[in-house]
Amino acid sequence: MTERPAQRTPNRQLAALIAEAGFSNAGLARRVDQLGLEHGLDLRYDKTSVTRWLRGQQPRGTTPALIAEVFTRRLGRRLTAQDLGLDACAPVYAGLEFAATPEEAVDIISGLWRKDSGSHAELRKIAFTPAGLVVPSRDWLIGRADDKVARGEPLARVPAQGRPGVPRQRGAAERGPGQKVTGGDIAALRSVGELFRSLDDMYGGGHARQALVRYLEHECEPMLRGTYGEQTGRRLFAAAADLTRLAGWTSYDIAAHGLAQRYFVQALRLAQAAGDRAYGSYVLVTMSRQAVYLGHGREAVQLARVAQQGVGTNAPPVVQALLHAVEARGHGVLGEVRACTASLVRAERALETARPGDEVPYWARFFDEAQLADEFGHCHRDLQQFRSAAQHAERSLQLRAPSYARSRLFCRVVLASARLGLGELDQACALGAEAAGQAAEMRSVRAVEYVRDFERRLEPYKDAAPVRGYRDKVAAIG
């Protein structure tokens, strides 16, 4: 006698959500396939697949998480696979969620660190998704502060680093989950951040990105899973947010755009756990910059405005200037001359009100006259206002310190493009060749892409002597 297959229970949760979203079975399948493509997956679901899910069949692999993401985007609230009556798994897109709790945030980000540090090449191929910016930025803006981040000890207990005679924990290689986090641990995280930031500025994100991710996995994760009081915990989450944003920034620089996006979303959540609203705005600025680079001007403007709304008008003038300049870049990409100019004027006025004694967060100190001139140069280039672009790019190069090597390279390419737009072919090619030589010394896909963009602009002049000379110089660089 043959054994009958076990009776499946119809999935009423999924049926109710399909009705609420107004999807047809074929419509849901199509959206899951499209989302899969965003994450490098070739899925072939159809209306029959959805009928099977409704009858109680469990989709395999990462599909439950993708289905949950489709509903999250449609309904504007975060839904998990369990909410849909599906088995959860580790989704390939994990990291776009804005976690409900600090504990969940630690689980998500440590999962990303582990996967990335294990050299999972597919993780670096995940596509950037503009739609994935909406829910996290909204959740950050309207989300309530976390009441508690302390772990494993009463809130009133005095942290170890505040008591004389308590020895520091020894190396993190000996650290196990549950060990006490000290002020020295957090100071070490901050120092590491400064080191990796300077390496990135000088040599490009590919130079030490993998080492940073391994550091996060082996040193930072055990701290987040250690024991700490409320005050130490907030400082720990702040340091973890900063390093995670930097991991995203270096990933962005090597064109791992989907991975970078996930790091930025998680840095935003860690900043919320830290109770650091201003740093959250800086993460949104970073996300806006990536959107500008990828040509998503509308999303870039929205992210900049959410950042402005999130910090309000009490932020230091330098921070205000940064937020307005980043919005201007979004308008520039969209060709919106009036809106771009208005944002640049606001940025300039804000920076003019800054005073030497102002309290400026460490992450905003780079934003000075050189950086503002750089933003002006980029915007005017995008708006094809080449004379202004050249003036501002030259000013930025005069003011900018040599340690910002990659930023100087970008600015030099902007100047080269502006000179080309003004018909000054010799100067344009000389500047372009200099930038190409510098790009060859870096591990930065963005640097290479800036040079390639300039070369595309040279195409109409390809037979001119200066362009042939440029090509010879670049060929010699190899």
Structure in words:
The protein is mainly α and 478 residues long. Among the domains are: 12-84; 97-152 and 173-275, no CATH class; 384-478, no CATH class. Helix content is 63%, strand content 0%. The chain has helices at 12-21, 25-38, 47-54, 63-75, 102-117, 134-142, 183-203, 209-224, 230-253, 257-274, 277-293, 297-311, 317-334, 337-352, 369-382, 386-399, 405-421, 425-440, 445-458, 465-477. Helix 15 runs parallel beside helix 17 (405-421). Mean pLDDT is 89; it is low at 1-6 and 154-174. This is Regulatory protein. It comes from Streptomyces plumbiresistens. Residues 157-183 are annotated as: Disordered.
Q: Which regions have little confidence, pLDDT < 50, spanning 5+ residues?
A: 1-6, 154-174
Number of E strands: 0
- Main pleated-sheet profile: none
Structural category: mainly alpha
Query: What percent of residues adopt helix (DSSP H or I)?
Result: 55-70%
Q: Any idea what the radius of gyration is?
A: 25 Å
Approximately what portion of the residues adopt beta-strand conformation? under 5%
Average of per-residue pLDDT values: 89
Cα(first) to Cα(last) distance is 73 Å
Order of helix and strand elements from N to C terminus: HHHHHHHHHHHHHHHHHHHH
Estimate the global geometry from the Cα principal axes.
globular
Question: Given the structure, what is the number of helices?
Answer: 20
Protein name: Regulatory protein
Organism: Streptomyces plumbiresistens
Region (Disordered): 157-183
